[in-house]
Design a protein that fits this description.
- The chain is about 5% helix and about 35% strand.
- It is mainly beta and about 525 residues long.
- The protein has a 23-stranded parallel sheet that branches. The protein has a five-stranded antiparallel sheet with strand order 1-2-4-10-9, with no helix packed on it.
- The chain is elongated and about 75 Å long.
- The two termini are about 40 Å apart.
- The N terminus is likely disordered.
Length: about 525
Amino acid sequence: MRRPTASLRPPLAPAALLIAGLLAAPSAAAPSAAGSAPRVTPAAARFAATSAPPADAGQVAQAGVPSATAVSGRLSPGGRHRGVCVDTPLRLTADRPLQTGASGRIEVHRADGTVADTIDLADPRSYHRTIGDAVSDTGVPHSFAYHPVLVDGNTATIRLHRRLDYGRAYYVTVDPEVFPGFPGIQDPATWRFRTRAAPPRTVSRLLTVAADGTGDFCTVQGAIDFVPEGNTRPVLIDVRPGTYQEIDYVRADRPHLTVRGAGRDRTVIEYDNNNKLNGDTALAGSTDPGDVCPRQVLPGHDKFNCWRSLFGVEADDFRLRDITLRNTTPYGGSQAEAFRGNADRITLRRVTLESFQDTLRLQGRGFVTDSLIAGDVDFVWGTGSVFVRRTELRSLHGGYVTQARNDATHPGYVFVDDRLTRGPEAPDASVYLGRVDPTVYPASQVVFVRTVMDAHIRPDGWQLNNAGCDKALDVRFWEYGSTDLAGRPLDTAARLPCSRRLTDAEAAWWSDPAHVLGGWRPR
């Protein structure tokens, strides 16, 4: 597939380490949403690592030894700093560009010298970790592939396999092979820090996340994990401005969560998770029951694809607002959801969801309002009953806006007062409103009411795969009051013959979210 000359966003970490599989926890050291260079927290420690002219290419002297070749920079967290988040990423910023090697170990030691965590670049097991206490359909813990080290210019961000303990002192060592040309860190006094004394109060209904370490947690997943299993009351996770490079997962036993950013242009979660890294392609042939998705709505089809999203939710009554989710999988990469909701009563308000294929997937009742969803192939899809209001659906290339797979007992996707726009790589008449195979999903329903549509929408509007209208008697591809960008009524005479235009009364009925969502009226 051709690659775009311009995309919606830059790729994740230009020099990012790409090995075996990918997936990660959040980043306190990521570039800001405005694209500025990674910031060093006030507690960052300065280091001056020097190496004597080597007798051979592998010889590296210890930190503090004078030499003609110096490497200086900053370490975060550091400076014997107290009060560090237990979910903190580690960051090393040098005075010259870094690159990762194929071997070498990064170790986090407790003050007594025992090892708390190890990343071994030569060991494939180091490229996997648990996220969100995810478990398979049989209750077996699931392991995600992820990037343990990401390099962006002069800065390396290191993500550990597990949380640290509260109230402990730690030091970090880095073998010289990890970053060729950097002499490594072996002195226990060079990179030291102490975690904060105690967790937040368990009675609190507000948890804060800050990339600079000033919140209760440094990562969104850290806050999600702190919510107790079987939670029964609302919990607000307030995510402060910053860019968080992580995959997030909410298990089914943590309902009633709200994740709130500081605004779509200020709080961004991003990562390049996708089907090739943690989905069907990555796990093809696996017989490990720990891989299999829980709560499969489409058994067989849903075997592994729950693990490939940037933000996955299995819990009911989840709300996401005022934030951007950006799956940085490149164009032509594979299916890569920005958000996947496999639960009931999910609300997305004032969010931006960015990916290419399969951007938004909802499997239960969902409500989306005042948002932006960007993608190209089936970028709004799933089996859910979903009401989408006052939202921009931006096609980045030719393709399909929707693929609804609801059954005959539930409504599908209903769009009211939305806008279908396009990026520069989506030509005229290159995008279908939706597609489906009616021999597999015979009751598929997609409704567009009072929708503004740019000229990238095809005159025929809809596509049936593997069948014609004679096999699509129960497919409901409906439309009402569609206009162009100037507000002029669209000529829909060339639409797929088995699609139809709603009457005024029908359009009014479908414009009520409670009718679509089985009586649920989202607040």
